[in-house]
Design a protein that fits this description.
Layout: E1 2-6, H1 16-30, E2 34-40, H2 55-60, E3 64-67, E4 71-73, E5 76-78, H3 82-85, E6 91-96, H4 102-111, E7 117-121, H5 129-148, E8 152-155, H6 158-161, H7 167-172, E9 177-179, H8 197-202, E10 211-215, H9 227-240, E11 245-249, H10 255-264, E12 271-275, H11 282-288, E13 291-294, H12 305-312, E14 317-320, H13 325-332, E15 333-336, H14 341-353, H15 358-372, H16 375-391
Parallel strand pairs: 1-2, 1-6, 2-3, 6-7, 7-8, 8-9, 10-11, 10-13, 11-12, 13-14, 14-15
Antiparallel strand pairs: 4-5
Helix pairs in contact: 1-16, 4-5, 9-14
Protein name: Glycosyltransferase family 1 protein
Domain Glycosyl transferase family: 206-355
InterPro entries: Glyco_trans_1, Glyco_trans_4-like_N, Glycosyltransferase_grp1
Length: 392
């Protein structure tokens, strides 16, 4: 099949949606499908030639067609070229939200009713201020029209959809919706013997002191990731005299503010902001950790890919009790009240004070990741869904 995936961001831009698409199309291509990712070029400074990318990213760029937007603001981008680009595919898979282009895909579908359109509903769109008002208008007026144009709609978790802006559509057109979780590369993310001593040495950290890991974007588009909540919980640790280290992986314009806050809390000796790390090194950061925390503050977080990466690495998780996120967290850890730094601190203390066989726990978490979240069975099912639509 010739399959087009349309998404608002794609590597090397950091983000969960793009990484999901990258893994999906890689597995589809491995099975012999002709896949292409249609996505906008980005305004932020990125490597200028393919040779500047890491080898792994350079390989994946083969699937991508970066189109120049006529209008662009953050992740919103209008790609009028899709009107012609999509005509040559057997099936189109839109990843929602994609402001500026999702409605163009809907219009393309109206002109091509016999071409299957699949939509993955990744998450609601939320933001404070004037952007939030625009999102509410768009979700009320345009989102139902876009979803109505789909032949099939995929949700990573029905728990999330039941609490999302798409719940009315979900109940009205239940037969259109399918639950299919995102996956993780279980070969890349895996437990390893021993600690990555080189990383502990590089960041001047002690491998004998428990380490908490955060992985996520630190730009305004990912403000909901809840970094301040985790910092406040670490401050509570400091006041209680409990020894703990933390590594924050990720970058963006908010990172400097987070670093200043950590410094004002007196956490400079135990907290490291390491920026964006290479794809090659990221799995080893999980191997540093005793615990991974996803402290997101609202439903802008719908699933939490970092939770899967952590579980595949055999590292337990603590995550906010949010729809969708808690579905994943239940398989590999515990949840805490969103935004409640005291509850988060208590949950971390409970984990390290419990008399459990941590080696057995690590293996159990890894096994769940292998059985439930490996990309191979997930794409097996996706491939069946595609074939059923194309053969109709």
């Amino acid at each position: 099949m010739r399959i087009a995936h349309v998404v608002c961001s794609y590597p090397p831009y950091y983000g969960g949606m793009g990484n999901v698409v990258l893994q999906t199309v890689s597995e589809l291509a491995r099975r012999g499908h002709d896949v292409e990712v249609i996505t906008p070029t980005f305004q932020e400074k990125l490597p200028q030639t393919e040779s500047d990318y890491e080898p792994e990213i350079q390989e994946q760029i083969e699937y991508a067609k970066f189109l120049k937007p006529s209008i662009q603001y953050g992740k919103a981008a209008r790609l009028p070229q899709v009107n012609k680009e999509l005509d040559n595919f057997d099936l189109v898979h839109l990843h929602y939200p994609f402001f500026g282009t999702a409605n163009l895909v809907r219009k393309w579908k109206l002109r091509n009713p016999d071409k299957p359109l699949v939509i993955t509903y990744h998450m609601d769109t939320r933001s404070p201020g004037w952007k939030g008002l625009i999102f509410k208008y768009y979700s009320k007026y345009w989102m139902p029209k876009i979803l109505n144009s789909a032949d099939l709609i995929i949700a990573s978790s029905f728990d999330y959809i039941e609490h999302s802006g798409a719940v009315d559509h979900f109940h009205k057109f239940r037969n259109k919706w399918v639950e299919l979780p995102f996956g993780v590369d279980i070969n890349r993310f895996r437990p390893r013997v021993g600690k990555p001593d080189a990383l502990f040495l590089r960041h001047d950290l002690d491998p004998d002191i428990p380490l908490v890991l955060f992985v996520g974007g630190m730009d305004t588009a990912h403000y909901f990731k809840g970094v301040p909540v985790l910092l406040e919980s670490l401050l509570l640790f400091k006041k209680s005299g409990v020894e703990m280290q933390a590594v924050f992986v990720g970058d963006g314009e908010l990172r400097h503010d987070f670093e200043l806050r950590a410094k004002s809390f007196g956490l400079g000796k135990s907290v490291r902001f390491v920026g964006r790390v290479s794809n090659e090194e990221l799995p080893y950061y999980y191997n540093m950790a005793n615990l991974t925390v996803l402290p997101s503050i609202h439903q802008g977080e719908a699933f939490g890919m970092v939770l899967l990466e952590s579980m595949a690495s055999g590292v337990p998780i603590i995550a906010s009790d949010l729809p969708g996120v808690r579905t994943v967290a239940a398989d590999g850890g515990v949840v805490f009240n969103p935004g409640d730094s005291r509850d988060l601190a208590d949950k971390i203390v409970e984990y390290f004070s419990e008399e459990v066989n941590h080696l057995t726990f690590v293996q159990d978490i890894r096994t769940i990741a292998e059985i439930k979240y490996s990309w191979v069975p997930i794409v097996d099912y996706l491939e069946i869904l595609y074939q059923d639509l194309v053969e109709v």
